[in-house]
Design goal:
308 residues; two-stranded antiparallel ribbon; MetI-like fold
């Protein structure tokens, strides 16, 4: 407990952090709210002092009624709904396997964690090369590693990301990339949870000759439910903020040549920042509202299903 006469020292120590938070967190949030509810906001007119303040929801109406935003929302929801369950289930299975393997366990943990510390744009470029068809449309195309692997099983080459590729082929590539990129963090969290479970539960199950699948469903999953709830919630938050993976694979256009746009809500916000700051702010608040609503739903469900 800090004595009252020494509280000023605590405020001095906290001052640098408070100043940085005010500049880079509090003020941007306030400014976003201001621009979102300022009809026909223009940063150039605002800086010149020639913009009259008119409170309203015009920016929100324009964003919601714009077809491009609806497409971005559809892409974001689709990628989130597909990737979060798949990545969570795979992370759980891999974490259980890693926890059961004693030799080379730390080495394997390091290998699985490597994608988490690798630049996402660089990883996207690698995935682009894996799915790419060099010389597509010519008489002698060169296929990426994915099509070469499929060829071993007698599957004809698939146009994943080149000109003329289908929307769902593009989505499949993005799902594979996002799931692979999300696994390390989730594996780390779930593996830490597994290693903290009291071994007495497993010893009792072993004495009763309980089948492994029943041990997994009745002991491992319930006792791991707090960590599972955490990775699901953070997975949904990360899914709604997806952007860099698409840029890494498809470039700044965020689509295959002649294909359907794969832009997301975050991409829409970035695109609007150049000359439509009011709409960008409104879209950012809409994204925040969606993430907040989904997070509250997840928290409510996790309270019913989580065992502490």
């Amino acid at each position: 407990m800090v004595e009252s006469k020494h509280k000023w020292k605590a405020w001095i120590y906290l001052a640098p952090a408070i100043v940085l938070l005010m500049i880079f967190t509090v003020w941007p949030i306030f400014n976003t709210l201001r621009m979102a509810f300022w009809n026909d906001y223009s940063i150039m007119k605002d800086l010149g002092g020639s913009l009259d303040f008119q409170f309203g929801f015009k920016n929100f109406v324009k964003v919601i009624s714009y077809q491009g935003f609806k497409d971005c929302l559809k892409n974001t929801l689709l990628l989130t709904v597909l990737t979060v369950p798949i990545s969570t289930l795979l992370a759980l299975l891999i974490a259980v396997c890693l926890n059961a393997i004693k030799p080379l366990q730390r080495l394997l943990q390091t290998i699985f964690f490597l994608p988490y510390v690798t630049n996402s744009i660089a990883i996207g470029m690698v995935f682009e090369a894996m799915f790419n068809i060099v010389g597509f449309g010519t008489n002698n195309p060169s296929f990426g590693i994915i099509n070469n692997i499929l060829g071993v099983f007698g599957v004809d080459p698939i146009n994943w990301i080149n000109a003329g590729s289908s929307y769902w082929a593009n989505i499949a590539v993005l799902v594979v990339y996002i799931v692979w990129n999300a696994l390390p963090f989730k594996i780390l969290i779930l593996l830490g949870g597994l290693q903290s479970i009291n071994k007495q539960y497993y010893d009792a199950a072993k004495i009763d000759s309980t089948p492994r699948i029943r041990v997994f469903t009745k002991i491992t999953v319930p006792l791991l439910s707090p960590m599972l709830a955490y990775v699901v919630i953070t997975g949904f938050i990360g899914g709604f903020k997806e952007y860099s993976s698409i840029v890494g694979i498809f470039g700044e256009d965020m689509q295959a040549v002649g294909g359907e746009s794969l832009n997301t809500m975050v991409g829409y916000i970035y695109d609007a920042l150049g000359n439509q700051e009011g709409r960008a702010s409104a879209a950012a608040l809409i994204l925040f509202a969606i993430i907040f609503l989904v997070t509250m739903i997840n928290l409510y469900v996790s309270k019913k299903k989580t065992h502490f």
